[in-house]
Amino acid sequence: MKFIIAIIKPFKLDDVRDALTEVGVAGMTVSEVKGFGRQKGQTEVYRGAEYTTNMVPKVKLEIACDSALAAQAVEAIQSAAGTESIGDGKIFVMELENAVRIRTGETGDTAI
Amino acid sequence: MKKILTLSAGLVAIGMASPALAQEAAEVADPSANVAYIFNTLLFLIGGFLVMWMAAGFAMLEAGLVRSKNVSMQCLKNISLYSLAGIMFWVTGYNLMYTDVASWIGTFGPYGMQAVGEADVETGYSVASDWFFQMVFCATTASIVSGTIAERVKFWPFMIFVAVLTGFIYPITGSWEWGTGWLDQRGFSDFAGSTLVHSVGGWAALAGALIIGPRMGRYVNGKITVMPGSSIPLATLGTFILWLGWFGFNGASQLAMGTIADVSDVSKIFVNTNMAAAGGVVTAIVLTQLLYKKIDVTMALNGALAGLVSITAEPLAPSVPASILIGSIGGLIVVFAVPLLDKLKIDDVVGAIPVHLLAGIWGTLIVAWNTQSEVDGVTLSVGSQLGVQALGVVAIGAFTFAISAIVWTILKFTIGVRPSEEDELLGMDIAEVGVEAYPEFAKG
What we know:
The complex is a heterodimer.
Chain A: E1 2-8, H1 13-23, E2 29-35, E3 42-46, E4 49-53, E5 56-65, H2 67-81, E6 89-95
Antiparallel strand pairs in A: 1-5, 1-6, 2-5, 3-4
Helix pairs in contact in A: 1-2
Chain B: H1 2-17, H2 19-27, H3 31-65, H4 71-98, H5 127-148, H6 155-177, H7 182-185, H8 194-212, E1 219-220, E2 223-224, H9 232-251, H10 260-292, H11 297-312, H12 320-343, H13 352-365, H14 367-370, E3 374-375, E4 378-379, H15 382-413, H16 421-426, H17 428-433
Helix pairs in contact in B: 1-2, 1-3, 3-4, 3-5, 3-9, 4-5, 4-6, 5-6, 5-8, 6-8, 6-15, 8-13, 8-15, 9-10, 9-11, 10-11, 10-12, 11-12, 11-13, 12-13
């Protein structure tokens, strides 16, 4: 099993979700997050005083999936979330040791 | 007019039914005096509850412009100050301001309210309606202070200051003009209170901001830390509520609606008041677009209020273009004064000092352009009117600032004004109120 964390632009969420559903990803957890990378922040003015928004709003996806599906899922996210401009985000993939479905107690592949 | 006369006859008939009032009603033979009494009173009541509603406007504006960790406290301070102002205005305020004013101060003591069924047509209006109308103005003055010094003042010291401001400072300076005291005798003119209400609140706020100091971390190593407000929709709603309330503030300051001339003047005041606010907004949005490449919505909100404060000292005499111009300069004052205060490290959370103090001074001085008072049968020249307006600004400003500074200093060195550093960082909602404004996280 693989665990995928993807940080994407907020307005790309619907596209990414559709692309992932198409390749067979059954579920995901989504959170609103803030952070910075190469994009850094932007300079804004509030009541005449300049300030830098050093954290940029992003959406974080967490997906647990079968190892066989991981490569397709990553590709789907990359193509759906891309705008070819700075700040498109990152995808992290890691090994997933176990998963448990709380209701039934199923573990491993059957739990995801 | 036919309808009005029928209404008046009906009310006289009701009066007849009560034996105690029958005699009075018989004495008052002139129905037009009754009609005037009723309409004048109605103006005070409608204007009064519109101005009361401005307390809601201030509460929402301030709730929107403070950070979310201090929103409950800001709401609490607003409803508490409104209530205490009303009580203090009865305990000492009204009589100090209006009863037997000897040049610079009235009489000390609670106001004797009219008895049930009592009505003296000679006064031209119900005295209780007048008291109510004047009380809500007093409360407005206190609302101005809470916004400037938000997020860093403990509740009880703030309330003690409000009691002194509404029970003593505001009524005493008010007596100089509206109580027909020494400034009024010299020809000073302030129709609805650019100086008497708004600048007084602004001076008290400035004294507080200087003595209390900025919010922690606001100005560090020569850099300004921006602390954006928690809710632009609430701040916008608050501004619209204040704008609505201002029609009562300025319109009902005509103080009479019993004649065709008066009701027409009230209407013209509504128009001028609206135009000045509109001018303030348009100026603020154009200027922020030019200066900062983006339009600052909080400056647009402040621009509306600065326009309103600017026209408050004389909302009747100016033409429509003059009203727009007067309000526009109010908007201009805001756009330049807000960053200037930051440079001086004066932390004014909601911009009340530019809006109420500086635009209030501007509005008071520009009265001379459209209105010249008559003193001892001689009409003042524009120059002498400007002189007496400046005298009023300086005298009321010096008195209010000095007494406010003394009270804030006493509070600072006795019970203390600021919360502990830890409480301030945590936010006043948790530290002092115990109720968060937005507690929904992770509670489904």
